[in-house]
Amino acid sequence: MSDEELMRKFFTADKFVETADIKIVEVNAERAVVSARIRPMHLNATGCVQGGMLYTIADFAFAVLGNFLHPITVTQCGNISYVAAAYTDVITATAVETVRHGHNTVSDVTVADAEGKTVCVCRFNGFVKDTDRDEVFAKFKD
Amino acid sequence: MSDEELMRKFFTADKFVETADIKIVEVNAERAVVSARIRPMHLNATGCVQGGMLYTIADFAFAVLGNFLHPITVTQCGNISYVAAAYTDVITATAVETVRHGHNTVSDVTVADAEGKTVCVCRFNGFVKDTDRDEVFAKFKD
Amino acid sequence: MSDEELMRKFFTADKFVETADIKIVEVNAERAVVSARIRPMHLNATGCVQGGMLYTIADFAFAVLGNFLHPITVTQCGNISYVAAAYTDVITATAVETVRHGHNTVSDVTVADAEGKTVCVCRFNGFVKDTDRDEVFAKFKD
Amino acid sequence: MSDEELMRKFFTADKFVETADIKIVEVNAERAVVSARIRPMHLNATGCVQGGMLYTIADFAFAVLGNFLHPITVTQCGNISYVAAAYTDVITATAVETVRHGHNTVSDVTVADAEGKTVCVCRFNGFVKDTDRDEVFAKFKD
Asked: In this structure, how many other beta carbons lie within 10 angstroms of the beta carbon of residue A101?
């Protein structure tokens, strides 16, 4: 099983991500990309993608990247700046690690609409636990 | 119709909040309180309330308070610090305005579990638009 | 030597705080208060207190509180929202701990001008190290 | 007078930056770089560059970039994540605009030590005023 397949299997258990219908598109050492096909359930009272949904997709991109690069990473802080409303039918979140030092990791996530326009930008601080990667994923490898 | 009923009606159109099954408990000049009965759909891969769900409930408490106090308020930035995992069956978010000056409003939101233990703390920056409150809510008043 | 005197002695070695001429007013289990008498050196190009100075006084209030409550606390993240310009001759920063859980502490700091008007609000995330308070301060006690 | 010279002249009036002895290295459409030669006055109680100083240099890099790209830009929020202690004799802050949309601009600033190691990463939200660039800088052009 590839590391990418492992990530998909690992995150199957995240039921809020399943509820929000967010999918892993790609994950590797450079970045994690996740996306969602927008449906009425994702919208706010003004008809664009709701702010909590935008945060949720960004946070998930960070979770996928962090746990791919150095499991287990737990989110300590999240910061989101809303830039523009999203009305299109697909949104995509791309996470890139900005810096890693000791137990600390900082990643930036950009959420874009179907035309590639930036909808919001996020920064996450994670704490990398002293766990062994192989041990964490052993039960998912079968 | 009371202002609190008006808020409930106004936010009926927020479909992501409906999807996450978050309800307005109380809103007045002092605070907004919203809550969710936790079900499997709200959990992450480790069985506690998922980070995006925690942000979503906090953001909604801010949206209810901001739009109650001075509609229309749009969220510019959100900041969340995760403090402890939530395993209980109800979580509650309470928003209080910290400071308002001109077009800017800053509010703090605390998310607590059923025992009142703080799960995460959030701070939101909003921009208050030059719209007329009565005009905004006129169509919801019937 | 009281704990408050100990804090003053401990922070004498902070030379940037000395450069910015910030003084400890009060520190106890409830809060830390620090202040600065504003002089031309604290101003920006438009004649009000400079943004870096506002952050510096807030960060110092957090450092004093955190190290009073549970030394050694190191700052992980700082967040500042600028609310209004400060033109008065004294600014004061008041830090209050919002939540403490395990190694994590979150505190809020409000910076006010001489009339008590809020100039900016800050939130700091600190990591509490596994150090012994008495050991840390032993050398300052003589 | 070049735009870069104009920026230097404009920011001569920032007295806190002068106090902290921070200099503009470079500013153009891609980035702003500012730096400081570290002296005892910049250090904290443990002998490394103080947290307020790190924020101040980052905030100044953002101010230089923002006002170069679209004067007048005022800082609304600042966010700093401390990554590693800085003990070297020079620190440098590099600001790059992440996204601009309407009145909003978001920029990222990286502060590095003399070896290029990242010391902290910052994100700033600015509000771009409806002012005319030429008008703002007219008085500095002679």
From this structure: 14
Judged by CB atoms closer than 8 Å, whether chains meet at C104 and A77 is answered as no
CA–CA dist A124, C77 (Å, integer) = 11
Residue of C75, C77, C127, C129 to mutate, testing the A interface (most A Cβ within 10 Å of its Cβ): C77
Contacts of D104 in chain A (CB under 8 A): 81, 83
- Secondary structure (3-state) at A51: helix
Contact D76 B76 (CB under 8 A): yes
Smallest Cα distance from A30 to chain B, Å: 23
User: Is the CB of residue C59 less than 8 Å from the CB of residue D60?
Assistant: no
| Segment C69-91, tens digit of pLDDT | 998 899 999 999 999 999 989 99
Global model pTM greater than 0.80: yes
C-alpha closest to that of C33 among C7, C64, C71: C64
**Chain A adjacent subunits, 3+ CB pairs under 8 A:** B, C, D
- Contacts of A132-140 with CB under 8 Å at 24 or more apart are A133/A70, A133/A71, A136/A71, A136/A72, A137/A6, A137/A10, A137/A71, A140/A1, A140/A6, A140/A9, A140/A10
- Please give chain D's pLDDT, 142 residues, in tens: 788 898 899 899 999 999 999 999 999 999 999 999 999 999 998 899 999 999 999 999 999 999 999 988 999 999 999 999 999 899 999 999 999 999 999 999 999 999 999 999 999 999 999 887 777 777 776 6
C-alpha torsion sign, points D115, D121, D126, D128: positive
One-character DSSP codes across B68-121: HHSSSEEEEEEEEEE-S---SSEEEEEEEEEEEETTEEEEEEEEEETT--EEEE
CB of B75 less than 8 A from some CB of D = no
Taking one residue from B and the other from D, the number of pairs with CB-CB distance under 8 angstroms is 12
ipTM: 0.95
Q: Please, which residues 9-28 of chain C have a Cβ atom closer than 8 Å to chain A?
A: none
